[in-house]
Amino acid sequence: MKRAFFSFTSLNVTGAVMQTRIITAQDVEFFESRISPAPMVGLAFEFPAGGGVEPHVHPYGQVLFGGEGIMCVDTPRGTWVVPPQRAVWIPPMTLHAVRLRASFGMHNLLISPHVVADLPKTCEPLVVSNLMRELILRAASTDEPLLRKRHVDKFFEIIRDELEFSDEIPLSLEIPRERRLARLCTEFLREPSDNRTLQEWGDHVGASSRTLSRLFTRELNQTFDEWRRHVRLQEALYRLAEGRAVSAVANELGYESTTGFIEMFRKSLGRTPGQYFA
User: Keywords of this protein's UniProt record, alphabetized (predicted)?
Assistant: First the structure.
């Protein structure tokens, strides 16, 4: 079966998936001008390491699935890290971009806004069951849009079920607006092994630990320790997916012991790193 893909300089339909590094907003706009008015269109494309999709917005709802790799989806509300065998729902007219560290095969469903009115208006994680995975792969591996209403109805029934029963995977990382908190978060994101206390961070950014604690709760609905653990978990997913040893990742992210890191991972995701990436 044929696949729709984004080429390096433009958008085409061909019988094979080819690699592209960066998809621009202009590429997306050009492609959308060529989409038939079907309720659902599948896409598949591959990226080398460092590839991605520039910030863009479109009228379609989108199911973004990566299979074995990990991707970052940036939105105005924050960043969504999508682990292996997970997907993310992106509502129509949501500004978003995609960043990738490693080579990556991406599968998408673009869904007409006319048939997604009752789906969430914010980005939401999807736990991809075996059935849903096969439906996504099938839709993204054919150049025939899903025109038949019965196909669309069945697929949406599965999407609704998955959204309703999605487990609480900590995928999103919101971006703070307050200047001092934003500085703290930005610098920690650059160096997630930093073990400075909240008081030490306060001395660095010009705020008391009490003020920073209040800002974390108000803007991010988390304590500093919870936010820091969340950031490290997201970074750990990236590094483990690249094949790094658990002990090395634990050390790189500032954990005093591998056991402590494994316990944090298990409490957050319900499985140890070895089980998660098995």
Answer: DNA-binding, Repressor, Transcription, Transcription regulation
